[in-house]
Design brief:
Chain A is globular and about 60 Å long. The longest helix of chain A is centred in the N-terminal third of the chain and has 20 residues. Chain A contains 12 helices and 8 strands. In chain A, helix 3 crosses helix 4.
């Protein structure tokens, strides 16, 4: 971040955001809903914000980090699979890979395996540890929302257990606010006492129309802020937009081939962005143009 | 509550608890885990307490309040069912009744229907509104735990949507900490915008070995306090007891035929208490003898 960029930042601590319509929309919204004298005031109890994770809070290219983890784990377990095989297999192939690598293991062992992988794996293009592939501007937004009385939650298509191994700490969220897809577990008494064993059955694939359903189950309140980047996030944004309160919808647009990636279709599973962008334009939702709106993409490395 | 009883109470605000081993166990535990100089100190982040609802926090006799609601709603919908028919049908009959009365309705309409019923229905023996059938001593315990930095959660076999229509307000808990059985929902755009329609599929029956699984999904941390009253709560208590921290297990024993009910088998579904009491004795868990330990059972009516 150059000192010139820093100078131009204002409005709290969105230091990595350029003075653009996106930042203005965020700041205007926050001012309105937190000002008791505003007609748009929202009590703290109802200040709920929901975020997609992959592609919204961190980089999802060239493939979801969790799939990179699953491919490495499959190889470790003696079932090597290539990215090409995975691409060719579509959703069914991904489900098979997840079953193989995410079941028959206790929840504690799985958390430990995820943490081991996260500590050593590096992003193939940027060479960073995956938890350092989060977007610095979104981290600042999460922080600004929290300081304004918001409860921020993640509703991702990724697995809850994998995300909780790193996301809580990195984003500053308690584990109960990190929600994703969920497999069934079996409760049993093992040699070390009671344990939960992850089994093969996938209970919730937390994408598309399931996201509002999961928000209902896990939060039980209608959010007033939602952020996403593909059509799979559209129902969550529509659900939020229909709140009786003033709301904010954020759409992260991947326009930055140099500093991140430029694309309009998410990797492997291929969820598009066309419907999202069309409805965002119709409803004047806030589109974040990564190349234009962000001073930096990633946080400084320690 | 007589002034004599009030006088004998000590230790915070458990005013409706007699000076008995149960109260002493609670107070000793709280003192130990909140004292920074104690070897049993537990940081606030890990102070998680989980409670069963029916029979643990409120009366479940002569039948679960939610079944009384379902029977009234079935009659309204033109499908009258008697309590005898329900008893004869067992779990399958209950599931049929729930499907009939808890589906084909949006989540907002269902919340409104639950609230309408709660405002007018009265308990058949005590004549109280159902939300006034909660146990005053447990209300004081929830409050004392909250004032000691605990996050209290409900994990009940009852339906999440039905409970949230009243439990949050009555127990002082945000909706996301009131968790029960969950049906699937369908996201659709209705005439008034996006809505969630409750459908017939039951996704989670939150009882027995499912309770630790739901705690893992919804909290993501191991509790250090658990309270229940039937064998269906046993896995939740065992899961809690296996925490590396000092823990507290509470078993509510229904011994009070005069002021509440005396029984050892829950209504309709017939979950017993024998295994729970046997394991409680073996592990010296704290059994709450309702007749002996509580000064009053229900809160004063307004």
């Amino acid at each position: 971040m150059s000192s010139g960029d820093r100078q131009s930042a204002s409005g709290g601590s969105l230091l990595s955001w350029r003075e653009s319509p996106a930042k203005r929309a965020i700041m205007d919204f926050l001012t309105a809903v937190t000002d008791r004298d505003s007609g748009d005031f929202v009590p703290e109890f109802d200040r709920i914000a929901v975020f997609d994770n992959d592609g919204t809070l961190w980089t999802e290219q060239p493939m979801y980090a969790q799939l990179a983890f699953a491919l490495d784990r499959a190889a470790e377990l003696g079932h090597p699979t290539s990215l090409e095989q995975l691409r060719a297999g579509g959703m069914a192939g991904v489900v098979e890979l997840v079953k193989l690598t995410h079941s028959g293991i206790t929840t504690s062992e799985f958390a430990a395996a995820s943490r081991r992988w996260l500590a050593s794996a590096r992003h193939p293009r940027f060479g960073r540890p995956y938890p350092a592939m989060i977007y610095q501007p979104m981290l600042e937004l999460l922080d600004l929302l929290a300081r304004n009385g918001f409860s921020c939650w993640i509703f991702s298509g990724g697995g809850t257990d994998f995300m909780r191994a790193w996301a809580g700490e990195v984003y500053g969220l308690p584990p109960h606010r990190v929600i994703g897809s969920v497999g069934a577990t079996e409760f049993r008494t093992g040699p070390d006492g009671p344990e939960l064993v992850k089994d093969e059955a996938i209970r919730v694939i937390n994408d598309g129309p399931q996201k509002p359903g999961s928000i209902h189950t896990h939060v039980g309140q209608r959010p007033i802020v939602a952020a996403g980047n593909t059509d799979g996030d559209l129902p969550m944004l529509q659900w939020t937009a229909a709140s009786p309160h003033r709301t904010l919808q954020l759409v992260v647009d991947h326009t930055d081939a140099d500093r991140e990636y430029a694309y309009d279709r998410d990797p492997i599973l291929g969820s598009g962005t066309q419907e999202l962008h069309s409805i965002a334009a119709e409803n004047r939702w806030t589109v974040i143009d990564m190349a234009a709106d962000w001073v930096v993409v990633y946080p400084p490395l320690p």
